[in-house]
Amino acid sequence: MPSDSVRPSHIRSRRARQLLATSLAAALLPFTPAPASAAEAPTNGPGTAVALTTQITEDACPWGYTTSSTVFFGQDQANSGVPNRDLGNGCTIMDVIWAEAPFANHGRFVSTVSGLANALQQDDLITKEERRSIVRAAAHSEIGSTQPAPGTRALPDDRIGLVLYTVRATMATAPEATLGALAACGYRNAEPSGAVNNFYGRTATALAPLVADAGLSVPSIGIGLGDLRNNLHGVIANARTFGAKYVRISGSGSWGLHDYAEVAATLNAVGAELKQAGITVAYHNHGFEFTTQSGGVRGYDVLVRETDPNLVAMELDLYWAVSVGADPVDLIQQYPGRFPLFHVKDMAADGSFADVGEGVIDFARIFVHSTMAGVDYYLTENDSPRPDGVSSACDSYANLRALRY
C-alpha cells in the first residue's frame, strides 16, 4: 500500500482518499503474470495498471467514467487529450477527481487535480508531459469559477432556433407557410425531428429546400435510436441534406442502468463514424433519465460518464430536467463542456408547458454558465403550444431575445 507521502494532501473527502489510495495500491501491487490472452492484450499507457486490472474482479467505481474518453474538463484547452486510464480497480482518473467535488473555488479544483497528477506521475501511471497536460487543462477550465452575471448580455441571434415539434400540427400540411412565419418573426435556425426520410411526412430531400427557402438553417436533426443502429448511412445522408452538424436521439423510460450503458456504447461507436463525416451525435433527455436507480446512480450519469466527450454531445432539455428536480446548473458544473445544444422550454407554475419567459425557470441563471456548458445553439420549444404553434414559437423568440443575463 502506498505511503501517505504519495497521496495528494489536497484530497480532502474520505471517499476521494479511499478511491485514490485503493487505485494506487492496486497499481503498485507486485505484478503476477496474467493468463496468455490477457497478457497479450495491449496496454494504454505507462505502468502496469491495465495488466493489473485483469486480476481485479470487483469494480470499485461502477457506472463511473470509462477509459473510452480523455481527461476532460471542457472544450478546447480544457480537454487534456490524456487517456482517462483505469488506475487498477475500475476507478479512472476522472472518477478520482470528481469524487472530490464540489470544489469550493477554481483554485481548489486546480490544486486537487495537480496533486493527483503528481502522484500518478510519481507512480509511473502517466508521463511528465501527460501530467502537464492534465494540470494545464484544469487551469483552462471554468470548474469552480464564479460566473459573472452583469445582466447586460443577450443571446446571439444567430444561435437561437426552434424545435419544429412546436409547430408539428402545421408542418405536415403547410410547411412553406409555417417556415415563412417563423422566419418572419425572427428565427434563423430550426431543428426538424422524425426518422430517416420521414420528417413531417416528407423526405429530407423534399423538406430541406423548403427550410432553406424560408431563410432558416438546420444545425441539428432529431432521429431515432433505431436509425443510428440500423441505418447510419441514411442518417449521414439526411444530415448532409439539411446541412446539420448534430443528430440527436431520445431514450426510453423503461431502461435500466445496463440499457443506458449499452446505449452509451452505441453512441461511442456511431459517434466515431459520424465524426468522420463532420457530424456529432447527441442525446436529448426527458425526465426519466434522472430517476435514481441501483446504487444511487442515475441513467443520465451513465450516459455522460460512459460516452466519449470528443464524440458524443448532450442536448439538455431544460424543462424536463427541472420538472424532476435536476438543476441544469449542477449538471453543467458536473459535466462541463458536454452541452452544445439547449432545448429552451419553460414551465408554468402548475408544471405544464409555458412559452419561454412566461414560466418559472430562471434562464438567466442558467445562461451565465453557457461557456462552461459549451452551448452552441439555444432551441426554443413548447410541447403543448397555445393558441397555435407559430404564435407560441414567436412569443418565445421575442421573450428570449429580450432576456438579459
UniProtKB/TrEMBL annotation:
Query: What InterPro entries does the annotation carry?
Result: IolE/XylAMocC-like (IPR050312), Xyl_isomerase-like_sf (IPR036237), Xyl_isomerase-like_TIM-brl (IPR013022)
- Tell me the ranges covered by the Xylose isomerase-like TIM barrel domain, including all copies: 181-367
MF-aspect GO terms: isomerase activity
Annotated source species: Micromonospora craterilacus
Keyword terms: Isomerase, Signal
Top-level taxonomic group: Bacteria
Q: Where is the signal peptide?
A: 1-38
Q: What is this protein called?
A: Sugar phosphate isomerase/epimerase
